[in-house]
Write a structure and sequence with these properties.
Strands 20, 21, 23, 25, 26, 27 and 29 form a seven-stranded mixed sheet that branches. The protein has helices at 2-16, 163-170, 364-370, 476-481, 491-497, 502-510; strands spanning 19-31, 40-45, 54-57, 61-68, 76-79, 105-111, 116-122, 133-139, 149-158, 185-188, 199-200, 206-213, 219-224, 229-234, 237-244, 247-249, 254-260, 269-276, 289-296, 332-342, 348-352, 388-390, 395-402, 408-412, 417-424, 434-435, 445-446, 448-451, 455-462, 467-473, 484-489. 10% of the residues lie in helices and 36% in strands. The chain is mostly beta strands.
Amino acid sequence: MRAFCALLCLVALVAHAKHVVQNWDITYVTTNRGLNQTPKRGIGVNGKLPLPVVEAVLGDTLVLNVRNSLDTPTSLHSHGILQRGTNYYDGVAMTTDCSIAPGTNFTYYIKLDQAGTYWIHGHTHEHNFDGLRTPLVIHDPQDPNPVEREFLFAAEDWWPITFQESLAIIMQQHGPGYPYTNPPYTLINGFKDSMVEPLHFEPGKTYKIRLVSMMSLPLWEFVIDDHELLIVEVDGVATKPKAVSVVRLAPGQRVSVLVTAKPSRNLNYQYHMTTFADYLPPIQGVYPQQINSTAIYATGAPVFVPQAIPSEPFDELSIEALEYMPAMTTDRSLFFNATYGFSSDDVPYESFNLVAYESPKVPSMFSALTTGDMSLNSITYGPATNAQVLKYGEVVEMVYWSATRVPHPQHLHGHSFQVIEKGRTDDALGQFRRRVPSKGFSPMMRDTVMVYSGEYVIVRFKADNPGAWVMHCHFDWHLGQGLNMLFISAPRLMQEKLLVPQSVVDQCKRQGIKVSGNVVGHDTYNIDGAPKPPGLIINRFY
C-alpha cells in the first residue's frame, strides 16, 4: 500500500511539473541600496537590485536564460541543489564549466528534485559579494508540515566597495589589510532595516519562516520574543521537529522553522535579526547590528517586553534528519586543516593543508571525462586543486580543523553530509568531545557547516553523485584567497554517463579554453605549466 501511495505521489508530481522560466540579463548596477554609503558598482539582474526571489514546485525544471552584459565572465550556482547527472550546470568556473563569456547568452536547465530552501548566487569572481544572489524556494505539494502562510527572510551584507577592491586590501603584501574603513550593513530581503515588514499573526495559526543566509562574512540570528521556533528543515533537508528560542546562521546556511501563534490578541511581539561577528573588529552599528520589527496580533496592542534576547550557537548534534539513516560507516577519512599563511613574497593566503587553490587551465570536469584511466590519479587535475579522487558509493569522512583565530563555514557542492562530531583542537583529554549516537539516531544532514575558531567538526557523506565538486569556505574573501579544494567523484562513471551539452563546450571555445586533457590540456601525465600553489609559511595567525 505504501509503495502504491508513493507511486501516486510520483505520478502527481510528473503531471504538475512545469518549466519555471527566468530571463536574466546580468548587468552592473550602481547603487548604495538606500544606505548612507557611497554608491558602488554592484551586479544585478535586468538593471535592478535586489534580484527576484525564485519559487517553484518539486518536480519542476528551472530554466535560467542568462545574458552576460558584464565586462567579465560570470556564472550562477544553485547553492544546495545536488545537480545529479547535470554536473555541468553547477556554475563553478574552471571546475564544471568556463563561465559565461561577456556579451553572450547561456541557459541553465536545473531539475528541481529536492524540496526546501536554497539560493542562487554568482560563483565566478565571487560575484555573490556584489549583489548577484537571491533565494530559491522549492515547495513540496506533500509537505508534512502544512501551514497557514510562509514568510521568507534572506540576509545579506552590502559593502560600499567591490569584491575585487576588498580582496586587494585583504591580500596586500605584508597584510592582511583593513577593509572595514568602509563597513558593510545588513539588508533583509534586499532592503535596509527601516523597510523590514511586520509579521501578521492570527491566534492559534501555524506559520513557516524560511531563513536564508546570503552573507559574505558575518553570522546572524533570528528570534521572536516569547515564541518557540520549531526547526523542520536545515539546508534543504527535512528534520524531526526541534524546539529552540533562537536560530543562528553562517554564510550559505538555510533553516526553516514553524511558529505557532499565541492563542490571544492581547499583546504584540517584536522579532529580531542580529548580525554579529565576534571574530572581526567591533564596529558600532555594524558588528553587532540589530534589526527589529513586529509580529502583530492586534493594531494598537501593547508590545511584550522581554528580559533578554537569547543568543546561542546552532547545535547540529542534537537535531535528527526526518528520514532515518544512522551514522554512516566510514570507508575513507580525510583531514582538512584550514591554514593561514604567507607566501615567500609575504602575501597572505587561506588554504586546506597549506595548499592554496589555483584554478586549472582545463575545467576539471572535462579532465575527468577525457583522460581515461589517468582520471583516477589526482595529479591529472594539477597540484593547486588539492584534488581527491573518490570511488563511487564510498563513505567519506572529513575532519575539518580550524586552529586559527577565524572560523570557516565549509560548503560542499553536490552532496549533503551528516554532522557526526565536534570538539576543540586543544582538547587533549576529550572533555569537550561531543558525538552523535551510533545507533537509534539519524544525524542531521546539511551542505554547509560552521567550524569555529579552535574547534574541529567531523562530517560524513556518500560519494554517490559522479562529478567534479568543490568544497570551500563560504566567506567570500577566504574563497578568493584559496580556501577551496576539489573532489572528483567516480570518474569512470562520469565517462560512461555524463553527456555535456554543446552550449557548455561552446562557452569554453569562445574563450579559448581547452575541453580535454589534464590540468594543462595534455593527454599524458606531463603537467608542465600547471598552476602551482604558493609555498606557504605559517608565521602568524589572525
